[in-house]
Every structure is written in structure tokens, then in C-alpha cells.
Write a structure and sequence with these properties.
The chain is an alpha/beta fold. The protein has one domain: Rossmann fold (3-Layer(aba) Sandwich). The chain is built from nine helices and five strands. It has a five-stranded parallel sheet, sandwiched between helices. The chain is globular and about 50 Å long.
Length: 198
């Protein structure tokens, strides 16, 4: 039986860094963001459903215009819920397919990297949960620098997710990513060792 561990955190909390370290340590990681892009590639039923529900979000090349779609959903909980209702079942189906493929290869562990793991109740289906925690001020600063956002835009994106203090309550392990990379790496290596135990 393959062990499935959820990895989550807040936006710009450093979840991608933890995911990269896990991959470097030889862990198979399935990234929900990658699946989310794949289920809306041109020609997919997912893209057809999104285009029907959100007119005007396709670019001239037939690709999803993520910036346009993002602008519509970030400040509107109803629109965000409508998008999630289309995408999440498709993403879950693909996740299950890939997990089953890894299990057939004889893998004993897979990490599911998903920002909305807890919001969507998926943590209940995991064997364990890792939450990447970071002070809100650090999140805000990273978002403003990384995405070129104003303080208001950064705060809106942080507010669109469940507060990290609530996510931490569902964690098997918490990675404190408020410090330097070496500290984060040491914490992830320790978790990896614990996951290796039968």
C-alpha cells in the first residue's frame, strides 16, 4: 500500500521550496498546480467547461488566459467556488490515476503538493499532512517581490486562503519556513527520515 502524504501551506509560505527539497531527497511529488494546468489544456473537457462558465478567458491561441481568469476569481468567492467546482474533481481524478501508477511501480510513498488541501477536505484522505508555516509579513513581502503585487493585492491573495494558523492545526508535521534555507532543509530531512520508518 502506497503512503500518501499531503503537503500544504499558505501562498508564498515556501511550500514550493519544501516540495523541491523532497524531490531532491528522492520523494515522488505530485503537484496539484501542474495537474490544474494539465486539465485545462486546449482540447480538454476541463477547458471547455471553464470557457463556458467564464466567457472571455480564452486567449487568441485557444489557451486559458490565467491572468484574466485570476482577476475574476481572486476578489469574488462565488466565482472562485464555481471554478473550483469544475477543476477539483478533474484534478482529483488525475491525482488518483498517477498515485495508482506509482503504486504499480512499487513505490511506497508519494507526496501530494496542494495549496487547498485542507480547504477542500483532502487532508482527511491523506496518511499524514505536512504544513509549511511562515509569518504573514514574510508571505506578503515574498508575494510583492515575486509577483510584482501591491500590498493590497498581496493581502487579498493571502486572505483568499485559510489562515496558516488554522492549517497548522491539521498538521502531522509543521515546517517553519520563516528562517533561512538551511533551517528549512534540516526540518524536511528530519520528516523524510520519519516517513522512511515502517
Amino acid at each position: 500500500m502506497i503512503r500518501v502524504v499531503g503537503l500544504t501551506g499558505g501562498i508564498a509560505s515556501g511550500k514550493s521550496t519544501v516540495s523541491r527539497i523532497l524531490r531532491e531527497l528522492g520523494v515522488d511529488v505530485i503537484d496539484a498546480d501542474v495537474l490544474a494546468r494539465e486539465v485545462v489544456e486546449p482540447g480538454t473537457p476541463g477547458l471547455q467547461q471553464v470557457a463556458a462558465r467564464f466567457p472571455g478567458v480564452l486567449g487568441p491561441d485557444g489557451q486559458l488566459d490565467r491572468a484574466r481568469l485570476g482577476a475574476r476569481i481572486f476578489f469574488d468567492a462565488v466565482e472562485r467556488a464555481a471554478l473550483n467546482a469544475i477543476l477539483h474533481p478533474l484534478i482529483q481524478e488525475e491525482f488518483k490515476r498517477r498515485t495508482a501508477a506509482l503504486e504499480r511501480q512499487g513505490k511506497s510513498l508519494v507526496v501530494y503538493d496542494a495549496a487547498l488541501l485542507i480547504e477542500n477536505g483532502l487532508h482527511r484522505k491523506m496518511d499524514a499532512v505536512v504544513v509549511v508555516n511562515s509569518p504573514e509579513e514574510v508571505q506578503r513581502q515574498r508575494l510583492m517581490e515575486r509577483n510584482g503585487l501591491s500590498r493590497e493585492e498581496a493581502d487579498a491573495r493571502i486572505a483568499s486562503q485559510m489562515p496558516l494558523r488554522e492549517k497548522v492545526q491539521h498538521a502531522t508535521w509543521v515546517v517553519d519556513n520563516g528562517g533561512g534555507l538551511e533551517s528549512t532543509r534540516a526540518q524536511v530531512e528530519r520528516i523524510r527520515q520519519e516517513l522512511s520508518r515502517p
